[in-house]
Amino acid sequence: MASASATHHRPVRVCFPAGSNPPLGILSHPSPTLWVIELRNGPDNRLAEQVLLDVIAPALDRIELDWRNTRRKGSDSEEWAPAALILTGDLRQNKFFSNGLLVESIAMRGFFPQIFDPVITRLLTFPIPTIAAINGHAFAGGLVLALACDYRIMTSGRAWCSMNEITFGVSLPPVVSAILQTKLPSPDVLRACALEGKRFTPQEALACEMVDQLAEGGSAGVLHKAIEYAERVENLAAKGVLGTLKKSKYLSVLNILGDDINLPTPHEADTMFRTKL
């Protein structure tokens, strides 16, 4: 795999799962410092177990390996190339970022501890900046997916952000509750979201700091604004410590999972990742 620091960058486009037609997701690497994961699971982009296990998880593996291969040793410290990841819904439409989890997936034994939680917390602590390009409705698990990213750019058009579990009489898993408490800016917003199932318009989501910016122009406009944001924050990856800083920031989420909390140095984090491959 060509590293992001290559002099002559070749754009990459990989379909997931491998050999699927049509794909459930597409990973692209349009510039040396940018990756884009585009989810394409049907018209409303549900987060089925196959999307989590066979699209998002392996895409994150590929991105992280490619970025870690840019490591270079200086006289005093190690450095990595600037990098950023954009996660978005199907760019061929302007209606859904993700409509959440499939009922069948939720009913699976061990779905949350074995499938959903590891993917969400991996994204939450990913070692390069992550931007959710919310190009339509983000409901329930879809909103959690967006909140697990570092930044959120949302369409200014017709779209809602909502945790609508109360509408269906479904409780919130512990990791979801922890992410909401960590990411939502105030008790009033948390109450409206988690207990009342409020549907936040883009303008309301921006006003309460649930999202960082709005973008006009449908999916294309949201992606363009997200790329601008990525260019602004990509240098945060250069020292290799961003993932560890995220772990420190989100200890409450990680503690709920019962993970062995360690705060590795950049070199240790690099070694740990390669050991898991």
Automatic annotation (TrEMBL):
InterPro entries referenced in this protein's UniProt entry, alphabetically: ClpP/crotonase-like_dom_sf, Enoyl-CoA_hyd/isom_CS, Enoyl-CoA_hydra/iso
GO biological process: fatty acid beta-oxidation
SUPFAM superfamilies given in the database record: ClpP/crotonase
Single annotated GO MF: delta(3)-delta(2)-enoyl-CoA isomerase activity
Gene3D superfamilies recorded: 2-enoyl-CoA Hydratase, Chain A, domain 1
UniProt-recorded name of the protein: Enoyl-CoA hydratase
Family listed: Belongs to the enoyl-CoA hydratase/isomerase family.
Gene Ontology cellular-component annotations: peroxisome
PANTHER family on file: ENOYL-COA HYDRATASE-RELATED, ENOYL-COA HYDRATASE_ISOMERASE FAMILY PROTEIN
